Description:
The protein is of the alpha/beta class. Helix content is 35%, strand content 15%. It has a single domain (11-242), classed as LmbE-like (Rossmann fold, 3-Layer(aba) Sandwich). The protein contains seven helices and seven strands, in the order βαβαβαβαββαααβ. The protein has a seven-stranded mixed sheet, sandwiched between helices. The relative contact order is 0.18. Mean pLDDT is 92; it is low at 1-5.
Amino acid sequence: xxxxxxxxxxxxxxxxxxxxxxxxxxxxxxxxxxxxxxxxxxxxxxxxxxxxxxxxxxxxxxxxxxxxxxxxxxxxxxxxxxxxxxxxxxxxxxxxxxxxxxxxxxxxxxxxxxxxxxxxxxxxxxxxxxxxxxxxxxxxxxxxxxxxxxxxxxxxxxxxxxxxxxxxxxxxxxxxxxxxxxxxxxxxxxxxxxxxxxxxxxxxxxxxxxxxxxxxxxxxxxxxxxxxxxxxxxxxxxxxxxxxxxxxxxxxxx
Length: 254
């Protein structure tokens, strides 16, 4: 997706692999996009080490999911799948994306995960956020950014709001977002990743396509919804304590 991606965005969501953002934050992204906000998705890797599918298939599925959610663009940094921790320039590229797109909110993966790329992706996003705001830090080889994003002046940018979404972690979120009206978009976005979640005769069995994984994701979001007194909610962990105008502005379980 390339339309309008050179403009500043409201939300920039980073995922270690195509489909990670959708597992944790798809409905929140759909809600923001439906509200007129500009959301951009950035995959750190192309998911080339996945048991099923290939780079081309997963890129196509990612574009379909982004369109379903109303994102204005999606890009891949091409870092090594399975070896994110060894990618010395990963945080630099994350910082470049942040400077190029100047988001008000950044989403990244929470670190309490079995998959090492999820843990390393968390650290990479955190470091990239820090580097993006340093006046004296220069992005190394900006031409390595996705097409068009490294062409202009990459002026330092500090992101005011950072949240981490949950993929497989049982962590207790700091905030819940009521996504009941947009949950169907999450179902459709996840269904777009048929190579990962759909079981076919040619597919190798994995924990993702066993018929249990996606109902588990939906069950978690329904459980968060029950905590919030709504049908479905997505949970996020805050980088810094969220500040609200008044205690009377808090919506609690009904």
